[in-house]
Structure prediction request, 1021 residues.
Amino acid sequence: DEDGIGVSNKQVDKERQSIETLPEEIFVNVIQLYASSCTPAHHLTTATLVCRRWRTVVEGTPFLWGKISGEDRLHRIRKALELSGGVPLDLEYDEKTSEIKPGAFFREIGPHIARWRTIVAQFHSKDFPLFELETLRAPILKKLHFVCIYGWQAKRPTLFGGRPAPTTLEDFKIAGIPLSLDLLHLSGLKELRIIRHATLTSAMALVVLRNSPELEVLELNGFKATDSLKSDQDAIQLPSLNHIIIDEIPLELAEWLLLKLSLPSLQRFSLSLDFEERPPRILPLLDPHIPELKRVVSGASSINVKFTGDFYGISIGELDLLFGSELDKNDVLAGELFEWLVSSFGKGLANIPVNLCLSDCPPSHVLAGWLSSRVKVTRLEVWSDPYFGVHSMDDVISALASPSGSSSSSRWTLPFLEELDGYLVWKGDNQDLVDHIRARQRAGMPSRSKGGEGTIGAPEPLKEIWLRYAGKGTNRKPPLDENFIESMREAAGDAKLYWIRMGIADTKFDSASYAEAGPSDFHSHSTKGYPYIEEIPEDLFIDVIRLYASPLTPVLDLTTATLVCQRWRSVVKGTPFLWSKISGAESLPRIRKGLKLSGDVPLDLDYDQASSNIKAADFFKEAGPHISRWRTVVAHFHSTNFSFSELETSQAPALEKLHLVYDGWSVWNKTLTLFGGLPAPFTLQNVRIEKTPVSLEPLHLSRLKNLILSGNLSIPPAILPTLLQSSPELEVLSLSDLYGLNISEQLDQVAVQLPLLKELVIHKIPLQLAQWLLSTFSAPTVRRFTLCLDVGESIRNPILSLLDSHAAALKSAATNASLLGVAFHASYYDVSIGNLELSFESSLDSKEALARELVEWLFTTLGEGSTHLPADLRLSDCPPGEVLAEWLSSRINVTRVRVWNNPWDGMHLMDQVISALASPHPSSATGWVLPSVETLETNLVSEEGNPHLVESIRARQRAAMQDPQADVTIGAPKLLREIWLWYGGKKVNRRPAPNEKFMRSVRDAGGDAELSWCAQRWGAG
Prediction:
């Protein structure tokens, strides 16, 4: 990248380092999200291969393995069942996509039926056996979804051996399977969906509703009950029901439901019914629900009106009303429905834009007076099925082309229409279509006077016209008749014109692109805006493709792009630099393809041994003959027998960036010499060597912009002065974990000017080397400064005086800081502000005096304004006396405190810190320790909770509210507004909270403070 250090690789490396420092509970959450796919066991198994820690955590966390999917292979299902231990199981099986047969799947999970929590199964066979679920009980089952796509033809199945469903069942969906529902005695449900159930009776459905007063979702769809209902039955109260779908059920049951149901929480309502005559009875039954329906339609930006041969419907927001009728007057009935909606929801409804859809219905529907006079139809869709011989949709377009009615009262049909979409191209030259479009556009042209002779105003001109092939056959190419194209273009005027096949926009009409590309190049895309991609300049299009190609598999993605169409193939294959990224995550054939199509452009090589599909030797063997084109080499490896091949023996004359990163634990038994012992190419500007024993001295590194050395390398310290002096344009310098350096001789005290240095990291290097660096170089433009050193037993920090000369750089790094961070750990203390971080290890038992010295020095260097910043105090396994330091309460505005205990170290001193916050203390000038703290975060929670923590929080909150029961002396602390709790035992972090009683106690003690467990708000409901 232009700044020198590779941004993407730098980010990846930081993530690799930081993920190991994540709390285990967060790490487990990351793995859980990673495995939330259709093959969870496969993904979890992959995670166990990363490293020993990952394997230990993943395999030792049973709930991660609780999802069992039929798309995993059988041996992975067995592994998941074993590693899930005794946790509840969530089962998913789709016969169409499953890797294994249903019998094998259910045989494996059957013995674990006592742990089944949810089961979602979709069948495509017509005689699918339900196995153990037919004979055994699932005592903790909460969710049961069974869907048969093609209709059940086997015997009528019975679940649970004819016994009632478990009382834990809350979500029940059955579709196309005639289960014996009466035996289940369903009750206490929150979601109920019964679809295409041949034997369901109305009485049975009502019994389930009465026994499920907390129902939230109800769908009754496609069954024909024959029993009668008693009109004097009591109403059913469903106060939590927010989503109801009534679709093709007996009319009597639908009317009864509308009459008897109370729906105060309704958010979505869908009603679809079939009538033999006009429906006078349904709309009045909706009147009692008008207040709830108003909420359902609120915020709607458009109205959808649809006519088919037998149905008419209107949708507004989350309200769908669809009625079937054998009458020929569906347009009249729809008008009555619309008038009812306006009278119910307000006249403002008539001002909302309407999308009108006509599908194989009488063309007279578009002439309905209310569609032109009462609503604002802005979009018209016309659908026609050629196999039924219905082409009366032509008459619809004819109706749009001229005013209708007598000469004295004529008006235009759908005068506000702006978009026309439909199956309209199907015969000959379609001249009548062209004429109708021309007439409509001419009438709406701005140059024509509104209200011409014999009219009541002119229509709006069309802005978009979308045409589809309406003849028989589904693979019709776009029409290439230039006369038709040009006629349509002329007729459409300023309207945008598109050709659409099968409901998908292919391309904008453009005769030049037709002539250049030909018919085979027009392809499908699922968005209406797709045609515009053909209009963007080629250089911008190439940028889009470059960003589309992922860094991990660029050749695979580029190959996919070449399959879209001839133009894409020509541009992508003809742009060599797109193919210049060569990744080890690809297969060898794709690597060879990338090397070939990249021509002579410089190459960027990226090999990660952990994710690569091929061996390092094979990767560099393929890339080796092209070493003269190598521009960047980024290699991550975890074994010490990694092969660098040509990089050890040959020169790479154009190399600009070299990253060699070893993240294994083995010890190298050799030193690597690069470029055959010759100096590095003068083009090299970016070097990163981590834990890799590269011999740096022969390289004679100079003119660098980025230098990162890490991992106890065998670097002769004497080369550093020369290296830094010869790299005056250095922008990033990072020296870390170099304790192996032998500083046996005095380093040259030469002045090193680094005027462009932006980032400086000095982390765990010998103190003598750090002192030399800080005393010799000048870097006034540093924007990020990180220093971490071991000062041993010194009672005064020997580094601070050396930092005085870098005051300008420190101020630059701390600019615009919004938070001050102070941390005490068992072995170190740390202060950070903005992009400035100073951390020092000390073998002294108490680091409070050293930390105060550092903070006071910072305030002096940066200015007293820093004292007003809110501070974050982190205490981890340190002596409790640190928090009692008077200066922490008087000099620093601590608003957040994090108290952390490591159970593996056996230190349990942190409870004393919490005690210090709970009552006044004489060491504090304000009377209270850290009086401004508003956020408390801690992991001092065991399986049993922590009663001491509860009482400390209660005492603190009472004092803040001046509670008479509180011990208040000089003043009062601030109220805690946030309490963040984590599990602090030796097991994997628990979610949900392991002790509900404890959490309720904390919530009561905290009052109005927001309580969170594992970074998620607790008890919000």
Notes: Confidence is low (pLDDT under 50) at residues 1-18, 447-455, 474-480, 501-532. The two ends are 48 Å apart (CA to CA).
